[in-house]
Design goal:
The chain has 23 helices and five strands. By secondary structure, it is mainly alpha-helical. It has two domains: 364 residues, no CATH class; 99 residues, 3-Layer(aba) Sandwich (D-Maltodextrin-Binding Protein, domain 2), CATH 3.40.190. The protein has a five-stranded mixed β-sheet, sandwiched between helices. The longest helix is centred in the middle third of the chain and has 25 residues. It starts with a helix and ends in a 5-residue tail after the last strand.
Length: 478
């Protein structure tokens, strides 16, 4: 009976990969706690859902009100989720979880297309065991959706090689190319480059086939449609801001001293991708030695993303997401030659049992999976929501230094539905109160307001903890 059940599980490896990925993503899924970027993007998506304006992304009234730092695809999808299910920390994770599980599925299909089902299963399992990839899936970071579309386009490029250039593969490729750009803009450049490099250096006959040119043409058409809609509904805000801002960010990075040496990104990747990183040089050596042309697009896009991020002025942990997914295909080359079909069939139910046990243990123990960022704000969520509910203005002042505390800006916007303006001193706060009505003032631990200041500003304390104090305005502005 048990043997028969195990055999049935082994006969459906894709189902095991999907279920296992969902079990991992379920860890702490209902718990609160999202990071800075997730809160920022969730506020933008919620604003879209609430206003019904899907082409003019907004953040807070005082910071990045007309948001154009990234294309809107992920915000659209998340806004639809919020429209249907409400905006909470849990629903904010749904889009990321969907694309994380989808990336595992795509790696499986790419592996299967490259060699066989066994290779696809090994590749999927490696990605599933890459903790630094899977844990990002419980967020709304844009890198995971972009990675899914990159893998979709990569699957089509390999299909061009393995099968033929046809309408089906062209549609898949154009969907991946356009989706990757609309998810994270210029960061999708390596997959576009991979398509043309694969044609120029490995498959020159593609250049004579109309279906090859249809793929980027259709993708450019889709992106152009969005840009036209941006001009029509948002006065071209994205076009006028996004591309010039890329240059400004690069220059600003130099001004602020945000610079990393060329070797720092690959070095960090090596440490983060242990132990599977040890299999990468073996896999690349096997491809070159045996002239496995079918793997050329995989190696090209791996190198392209490595070089792309080596030029970044600073290193962020989510930059490694596409590399994790692509690397799982390269790391599997050596393991595919060492493990038989029987080994893989034995491993499949073991992995499923492991993830079921992991999810069950985490659920029964009730252990916190997600770290509460800015707990000093989070503990006042109910109090501040009740307090602001009856106020005409939900705006607040944050007295801090001259640099905006983006964590406080994001978390007050997400949890308190409040727009916070940060000012550098009590004097500036007093002037701000004279010109506009604010419902409260937030003061961090580095600032101390004495009794005279409180009387001058017309403040009375409503809440405080070790890190912040919150004051309400009895008589706003004197």
């Amino acid at each position: 009976m048990i043997k028969k059940l195990l055999n049935q599980i082994s006969d459906h490896p894709l189902s095991v990969l999907i279920i296992s990925s969902l079990l991992f993503l379920s860890l702490g899924f209902w718990q609160d706690g999202i990071n800075l970027d997730s809160a920022t993007y969730s506020v933008i998506a919620r604003n879209m859902a609430n206003s019904g304006d899907w082409f003019s992304p907004t953040y807070t009234e005082y910071y990045l009100y007309k948001f154009a730092d990234h294309p809107p695809l992920v915000f659209w999808l998340q806004g639809i989720v919020f429209k249907m299910l409400g905006a909470t920390d849990t629903t904010a994770r749904l889009v990321g979880a969907f694309f994380t599980s989808g990336s595992v599925i795509m790696v499986y299909f790419i592996g299967k297309k490259l060699i066989d089902q066994k290779f696809g299963v090994i590749s999927g399992l490696i990605l599933l065991l890459t903790y630094n990839f899977m844990q990002i899936g419980n967020s709304t970071l844009l890198d995971v959706p972009m990675t899914f579309f990159v893998l979709l386009a990569l699957y089509a490029i390999i299909s061009f090689q393995k099968d033929k250039l046809n309408l089906r593969n062209t549609i898949i490729c154009s969907s991946g190319l356009s989706g990757a750009f609309l998810a994270k803009g210029i960061v999708s450049a390596p997959i576009w480059g991979t398509l043309f490099l694969a044609a120029l250096f490995f498959n020159r006959n593609w250049l004579k086939n109309k279906f090859f040119w249809f793929a980027p043409a259709v993708a450019i058409f889709v992106v152009s449609c969005y840009l036209l809609l941006d001009f029509n509904f948002n006065n071209g805000r994205f076009v006028n801001y996004y591309f010039p801002n890329l240059i400004n960010r690069s220059n600003m990075g130099s001004v602020l001293g945000l610079h990393t040496e060329w070797f720092e990104f690959p070095l960090r990747f090596v440490t983060l991708y242990l132990p599977f990183v040890l299999l990468l040089p073996i896999g690349i050596f096997e491809v070159v030695k045996n002239k496995k042309k079918i793997f050329a697009p995989v190696i090209v896009i791996f190198i392209a993303y490595l070089l792309f991020y080596m030029m970044a002025p600073k290193i962020l942990y989510h930059y490694f997401v596409p590399l994790y997914a692509i690397s799982s295909l390269i790391a599997s080359i050596y393991l595919h030659s060492k493990f038989s079909e029987r080994h893989i069939r034995t491993a499949i139910p073991i992995f499923l049992i492991f993830f079921i046990a992991l999810a069950g243990a985490a659920g029964l123990s009730g252990m916190p999976i997600h770290h509460i960022r800015s707990p000093e704000l989070y503990e006042f969520n109910n109090k501040m929501n009740n307090f602001l509910f009856s106020k005409d203005s939900k705006d607040g002042l944050l007295i801090g230094d001259g640099v905006p505390n983006w964590e406080h800006v994001a978390k007050t916007a997400w949890y308190w539905h409040s727009n916070v303006l940060q000012v550098a001193s009590v004097e500036i706060a007093r002037d701000s109160l004279r010109s506009r009505k604010f419902a409260y003032i937030l003061v961090n631990k580095l600032q101390k307001l004495n009794k005279e200041t409180l009387e001058l500003l017309g403040l009375s304390e409503i809440e405080k903890n070790e890190l912040i104090s919150i004051y309400t305005l009895d008589t706003p502005g004197k």
